[in-house]
UniProtKB/TrEMBL annotation:
Keyword Membrane: yes
Protein name from the UniProt record: MFS transporter
Subcellular location per the Swiss-Prot or TrEMBL entry: Cell membrane
Keywords noted in UniProt: Cell membrane, Membrane, Transmembrane, Transmembrane helix
Domain named Major facilitator superfamily (MFS) profile: residues: 1-401
Region (Disordered): 173-206
Length: 408
């Protein structure tokens, strides 16, 4: 995650130096397009060949790509095409890496420890996003984009060494999964061990396996409602927290530091709650509480836009972060715990696709709405959409009664 943050800042900085400010968005878009278009296919690849192989292979390519570009920038003054090629290839590889790494947790730990692992993962993800920009700034100031790319490449190489040490345990049959997982199996293939790739990987087309995975999500009584609810919720809350917060700061006369303080308060709250889940390792009535916390977090995010001062907005954002951290941790653990191992990559890819492919499409809508009706409207409407999404699992009895696996 630190390497990711350094890479993206270095890419934008280098694009601005080589091609000018107008080219920054072009280079970023070139990387985002293949990531969005290929993300669902990346889930198929993870299930077909096994996520560990895909994670190690894609992380190796990422490291080599970035270090190669660092060397090119160090030795010459290339044109913008080098950055375009890097962004394009990195986006393709990321479309493989993200679903695969998302499919690993349920395969590498006992089911009773799944919430601990996902809680710690969420915590270090947030830490990585916070630690990356200062490191990138230091590298850019000390040696320019080539130094920043070199730092990112070294970080990816270090992560590769750690990923190689990860081992998938022995066969753990999917019969340990919930009854809901078995009911979703109809028409979607049989369960297999956590070591084996998906059975559909033997001769099935990518498109057929993709349809198989989407059918699995749609039919699963626990995974389906939680995945769809999470996707709709992201569509609602992402525009306010990206576009809306900037416009809100301008309308209220807040400084950039004030806007950063509000977002930082939310990130801090989410970090605290995810760490709490990791330490606790157990949360009764997880399905019910995942729904309730999403409803409360959505309302709190909507209320940020109504706050007149930075302090008030930060206090509400802190509350939203604390509750949303609980919601995210419980939902992701329930999804992983109830997904058969042969479908973990495809389910993970659906969730990642929402973040990188669907949600950004609504950013211009949020900007247009903020310009016409004010930033508060973006927060209120976005919060309402997310609240509506939280009601979806209420129609699924299995979600109400879903429990997290516990240690035996």
């Amino acid at each position: 995650m630190v390497g990711d943050s350094v890479y993206f800042l270095a890419l934008g900085w280098a694009a601005a130096q080589i091609g000018g400010p107008a080219q920054v968005g072009v280079v970023m878009a070139v990387g985002a397009i293949p990531r969005a278009l290929l993300m669902l296919g990346g889930g198929v690849v993870a299930d077909r060949f096994g996520p560990r192989k895909v994670v190690i292979g894609s992380d190796t390519v990422r490291s080599v790509l970035i270090l190669a570009v660092a060397a090119v920038l160090w030795l010459s003054a290339p044109g913008l095409w080098v950055l375009v090629a890097l962004a394009l290839l990195f986006g393709v590889v990321d479309a493989l890496f993200m679903p695969a790494v998302g499919a690993l947790p349920a395969r590498i730990t006992a089911r009773g420890e799944l919430m601990r692992l996902l809680g710690f993962k969420a915590f270090v993800d947030r830490f990585g996003r916070l630690a990356g920009p200062p490191l990138a700034g230091f590298a850019l100031g000390a040696g320019g984009p080539e130094a920043a790319f070199a730092a990112a490449g070294v970080l990816f190489a270090l992560s590769l060494v750690l990923l190689i040490t990860v081992r998938i345990p022995g066969v753990r049959p999917d019969s340990a999964r919930s009854d809901g997982a078995r009911s979703a199996r109809a028409g979607s293939g049989d369960a297999r061990s956590d070591e084996a790739p998906s059975p559909s990987g033997r001769g099935g087309s990518v498109l057929r396996e993709l349809r198989d995975g989407l059918r699995y999500v749609r039919r699963h009584p626990v995974v389906g409602p939680l995945v769809v609810s999470g996707c709709i919720s992201q569509v609602g809350i992402s525009p306010p927290l990206t576009v809306g917060i900037v416009v809100l700061g301008e309308e209220r006369g807040w400084s950039p530091a004030g806007v950063g303080f509000v977002l930082g308060a939310m990130a801090f709250g989410a970090g605290v709650s995810t760490l709490g889940l990791a330490v606790a390792g157990r949360f009764p009535r997880a399905g019910l509480w995942a729904t309730v916390t999403l409803l409360v977090a959505s309302a709190a995010i909507g209320a940020i836009g109504l706050m007149p001062t930075v302090a008030a907005a930060a206090a509400v954002a802190l509350t939203a972060g604390l509750v949303s951290g609980l919601c995210g941790g419980l939902s992701s653990t329930l999804i992983q715990a109830n997904t058969e191992s042969g479908y973990l990559g495809r389910v993970s890819s659906v969730m990642a696709f929402t973040a990188v492919g669907v949600t950004p499409l609504f950013f211009p809508v949020g900007g247009w709405a903020a310009g016409n009706w004010g930033a508060a409207s973006v927060f209120v409407v976005g919060g309402a959409v997310s609240m509506a999404a939280s009601l979806l699992p209420l129609f699924a009895r299995e979600v109400w009664h879903a429990e997290l696996p516990h240690k035996r």
